[in-house]
């Protein structure tokens, strides 16, 4: 078994880990990045499926994501805007498709008024939330004790309004049923994007894409590290010294399948749900053992359907579609830059995702395409390429888009997620404030972990 010594060992070669490694290396510290997969990128993955380039993981860049925007520019990457010309489509409780323009769904005037009033109320609440410290709000415990669905239903008895308000943070972002997470968790999700209004505005939150795919960010970051990135090296054991800041301290020993790394510090740059895949010697503190049992991934299927042409554009449609009543709760024109083919991307989340995975692959495909046809017509039933991104089956991810707390967990444990444990630091989008659940948050957390280590190294 190979044995090396570095200043810092980083576990996970996603955007967070690679950002941290680059920051540390630029400052003069030696690093080793150990990645369990046979590729870098984590939840960013661009692949060619049957001749079509598909972004299987994260892909969008929004105007509030300063850290990601800066990284994309610094790496010399180009972006392009998501296609949005023409009508959007909404399928209501009557099962009929309705075309519309603008941000508001074509609901009754009464329902529109309710949605607008509650959105304004939520924006005011979100404005009081510090996304880095939501548990510090005076009402944090109260807001963490009521489910997102239950709170909305105390605001109105208009079911269509509740469904449309709920799915922005439920199916669309946290990808969990709205009765399984708290109002506080929902407010954090909105605060991470600047406001609830931002979160429900598809033209804002899903603004641009990177030419060639967003995975280029970690790929280019890994290139700069060269031989300091080691693939197919899942860390099985992490030995750590509680006196790691002392000059004579051992620090950490990371034992992977084919190598051992001795270092002064470690950064765990993987989702919290994967910490249990590592044997810690000595064990993590009791608080962390408890905390990690109250965090779980959501579940979403990202569906890619490729067509010879973007036929919906010829019908005057933008490709943007929503419905809290459909299996595919939202869908967009996801055609690639410079490619004449049309690509639709749709999302099936939470309970709907559970349900369709109980079907055969053939029946699941038929159900999903049928749902797309309710937005775009029968032409949607016959793609030339069909692919489902199923992150729930990924051994080194186990869900999507990111981890969140169960009821009551955020105010109880949130303040401890980033707290160092001996020589160990933590960095991933799952523990971010601004940019929570996004690549932007991963980059921010990578920079933060690196800065903490550098401050200690210089002390």
From TrEMBL:
Broad enzyme group: oxidoreductase
Amine oxidase domain span: 16-454
Origin superkingdom: Bacteria
Signal peptide from the UniProt entry: none
Binding positions (substrate): 347
EC number, UniProt record: 1.4.3.10
Cofactors required: FAD
One MF annotation (Gene Ontology) recorded for this entry: putrescine oxidase activity
Protein name listed in UniProt: Putrescine oxidase
The organism of origin for this protein: Microbacterium lemovicicum
Biological classification of the source: Bacteria, Bacillati, Actinomycetota, Actinomycetes, Micrococcales
């Amino acid at each position: 078994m190979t044995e090396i010594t570095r200043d810092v060992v980083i576990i996970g070669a996603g955007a967070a880990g690679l950002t941290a490694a680059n920051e540390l290396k630029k400052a003069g510290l030696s690093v080793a990045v150990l990645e369990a997969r046979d590729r870098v990128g984590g939840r960013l993955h661009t692949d060619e499926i049957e001749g079509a380039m598909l972004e299987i993981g994260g892909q969008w860049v929004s105007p509030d994501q300063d850290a990601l925007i800066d990284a994309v520019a610094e790496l010399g990457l180009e972006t392009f805007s998501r296609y949005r010309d023409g009508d959007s489509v909404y399928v209501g409780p009557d099962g009929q498709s309705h075309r519309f323009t603008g941000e508001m769904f074509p609901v009754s005037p009464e329902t529109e008024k309710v949605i607008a009033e509650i959105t304004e109320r939520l924006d005011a609440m979100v404005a009081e939330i510090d996304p880095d410290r939501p548990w510090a709000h005076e009402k944090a415990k109260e807001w963490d004790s009521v489910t997102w669905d239950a709170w909305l239903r105390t605001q109105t008895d208009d079911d269509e309004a509740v469904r449309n308000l709920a799915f922005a943070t439920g199916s669309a972002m946290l990808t969990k049923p709205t009765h399984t997470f708290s109002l506080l968790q929902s407010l954090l999700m909105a605060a991470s994007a600047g406001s609830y209004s931002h979160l429900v505005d598809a033209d804002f939150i899903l603004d641009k894409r990177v030419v060639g795919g967003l995975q280029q960010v970690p790929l280019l970051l890994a290139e700069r590290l060269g031989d300091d990135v080691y693939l197919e090296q899942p860390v099985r054991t992490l030995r750590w010294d509680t006196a790691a800041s002392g000059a004579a301290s051992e620090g950490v020993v990371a034992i992977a399948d084919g190598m051992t790394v001795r270092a002064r510090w470690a950064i765990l740059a993987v989702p919290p749900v994967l910490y249990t895949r590592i044997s810690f010697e000595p064990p993590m503190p009791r608080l962390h053992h408890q905390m990690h049992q109250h965090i779980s991934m959501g579940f979403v299927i990202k569906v890619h359907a490729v067509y010879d042409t973007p036929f919906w554009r010829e019908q005057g449609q933008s490709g943007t579609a929503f419905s809290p009543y459909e299996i595919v709760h939202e869908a967009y024109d996801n055609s690639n830059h410079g490619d004449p083919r049309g690509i639709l991307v749709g999302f099936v989340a939470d309970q709907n995702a559970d349900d369709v995975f109980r079907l055969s692959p053939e029946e699941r495909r038929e159900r999903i395409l049928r749902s797309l046809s309710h937005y775009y017509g029968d032409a949607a039933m016959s793609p030339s390429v069909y692919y489902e991104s199923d992150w729930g089956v990924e051994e080194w991810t186990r869900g999507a888009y990111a981890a969140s707390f169960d009821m009551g967990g955020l105010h109880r444990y949130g303040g401890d997620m980033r707290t160092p444990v001996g020589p160990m630091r933590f960095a991933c989008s799952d523990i971010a404030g601004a940019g929570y659940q996004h690549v932007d948050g991963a980059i921010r957390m990578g920079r933060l972990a690196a800065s903490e280590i550098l401050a200690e190294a210089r002390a």
